């Protein structure tokens, strides 16, 4: 098992406008440790209780991060047993924070086109015609 006391602490949010949930920060810390090879395939991840105490957050916060890591295939969890880093966890993937902060710096992509499409059901037109109502194209 890795020494969880050497894990990074949770960083404070940089600005008031950008608030990243703690479970996202925890996900990214563990994710980065896996990608950097600090935690290797087959290593046991510390328990949710130990991690919650270390980061001074609720166990539910750690559980959410661990559940997302499991869904993304980075760890394997079995009820009543400790979480283990997956053997195929080295598939590179972006961290989780991009969902909350997609454009901190170097944002140059502008929205220059918006496409909207709509469909109607021909059966509605037929039904209206059977009632004597003429349908119009929009």
Automatic annotation (TrEMBL):
<dbReference type="GO" id="GO:0003677">
    <property type="term" value="F:DNA binding"/>
</dbReference>
<dbReference type="InterPro" id="IPR050679">
    <property type="entry name" value="Bact_HTH_transcr_reg"/>
</dbReference>
<feature type="domain" description="HTH gntR-type">
    <location>
        <begin position="20"/>
        <end position="88"/>
    </location>
</feature>
<dbReference type="InterPro" id="IPR000524">
    <property type="entry name" value="Tscrpt_reg_HTH_GntR"/>
</dbReference>
<keyword id="KW-0238">DNA-binding</keyword>
<dbReference type="GO" id="GO:0003700">
    <property type="term" value="F:DNA-binding transcription factor activity"/>
</dbReference>
<keyword id="KW-0805">Transcription regulation</keyword>
<dbReference type="InterPro" id="IPR036390">
    <property type="entry name" value="WH_DNA-bd_sf"/>
</dbReference>
<keyword id="KW-0804">Transcription</keyword>
<dbReference type="GO" id="GO:0045892">
    <property type="term" value="P:negative regulation of DNA-templated transcription"/>
</dbReference>
<dbReference type="Pfam" id="PF00392">
    <property type="entry name" value="GntR"/>
</dbReference>
<dbReference type="InterPro" id="IPR036388">
    <property type="entry name" value="WH-like_DNA-bd_sf"/>
</dbReference>
<protein>
    <recommendedName>
        <fullName>HTH gntR-type domain-containing protein</fullName>
    </recommendedName>
</protein>
């Amino acid at each position: 098992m890795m020494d969880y006391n050497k894990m990074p602490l949770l960083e404070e949010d940089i600005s008031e406008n950008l608030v990243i949930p703690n479970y996202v920060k925890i996900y990214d810390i563990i994710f980065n440790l896996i990608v950097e090879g600090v935690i290797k395939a087959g290593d046991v991840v510390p328990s949710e209780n130990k991690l919650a105490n270390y980061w001074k957050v609720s166990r539910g916060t750690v559980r959410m991060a661990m559940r997302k890591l499991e869904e993304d295939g980075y760890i394997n969890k079995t009820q009543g047993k400790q979480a283990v880093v997956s053997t195929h966890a080295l598939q590179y993937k972006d961290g989780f924070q991009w969902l909350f902060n997609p454009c901190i710096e170097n944002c140059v992509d502008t929205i220059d086109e918006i496409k909207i499409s709509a469909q109607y059901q021909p059966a509605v037109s037929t039904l209206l015609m059977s009632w004597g109502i003429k349908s119009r194209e929009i």
